[in-house]
Amino acid sequence: MTTNTFDVAIVGGGAAGLSAATTLARSLRSVVVLDAGKPRNAPAAGAHNVLGHEGISPLELLAKGRAEAAGYGARIRPGEVVNARRDDDGLFVIELDDGDTVNARRLLLASGLVDELPDVPGVSELWGSTVLHCPYCHGWEVRGQRIGVLGTGAMSAHQAMLFAQLSDDVTLFTNTMPTPEDEEIERLSALGVAVVDGVVERLDVVDGALGAVVLSDGRAIERDALVVAPRFVVRSEIYTGLGGTLADHPMGGTFIPTGQMGATDVPGVWAAGNCADLAATVSVSMGAGTNAGAAINMDLILDDARRAVSRENRRAPHATTTSPAG
Hints:
The chain is α/β, with parallel strands linked by helices. It has 2 domains: 3-115 and 231-315, FAD/NAD(P)-binding domain (3-Layer(bba) Sandwich), CATH 3.50.50.60; 118-227, FAD/NAD(P)-binding domain, CATH 3.50.50.60. Helices cover 28% and strands 26% of the residues. The chain has helices at residues 15-26, 58-71, 123-126, 135-138, 156-164, 182-190, 237-241, 282-315; strands at 3-11, 31-35, 75-78, 81-86, 92-96, 101-109, 113-116, 131-132, 147-150, 170-173, 194-196, 200-206, 209-215, 220-222, 225-227, 231-234, 247-248, 254-255, 269-271. Strands 1, 2, 3, 4, 5, 6 and 19 form a 7-stranded mixed sheet that branches. Helix 1 (15-26) runs parallel beside helix 2 (58-71) and helix 1 (15-26) runs parallel beside helix 8. The chain is elongated, with a radius of gyration of 25 Å. The termini are far apart.
């Protein structure tokens, strides 16, 4: 087992983690990025709304980010974190799956989340191509096409209205969602969204793309793309293991609550990206990582200053008092 000590350890090598690493390394901090190599957006063909990099492959973007962070001195360490604790000196002791241990003065969690997809045959196979969830991430790519929306929750009608902005042919499959309110039905109708009742049995996959949505009664409705609502599961084991408490999200699921610049309720721990903001896109995660990196650097500066003052006080000679000559 080997041990290394850094100013900051970052759990997660995605947009948030690498942005924070670059910010910290440019401030001459020793930084290690602990990257399990499981980027959420790996199945997608391109990352969008990333200024200057529109449509770039997510994996290419991460490769560029790793090179930039490493160019300023950050260390990129492949491996999955299995545990983190604090030692008697206040350092974070971070254990990896290969048995190595990393020590750090501060910890940034940028571990992201996992998309739990609806259990409908064909959905996982087409996820990231003709099965999608975000109109801002991938809506342009399916504009004007025959779009279906898989009803699984209260927000499915909301999704249908969003995609009706992008196509005149949108169908909401009620599937397992709650019965829409009359007001929702009225809005959907006014926007030209068709509503089809019935449980979706499977997706018909043709040449690696969506061909039709097949219902349990045998109906097959041709669609070019299907919108789903994954269940967002935050990678939060490290945070809760350190004593942190998750917060409930209004749209469902939980997240790591943070204050300004990503600070959490656990001293010395920050969080950025999807683990702290379920709706964060790539560019939003970048900004959150940059902010967290700046905040951590300032926190370390204050800690360094306190330590320096303490050392100076210990070195200062004791003042002596002499009586005046009489």
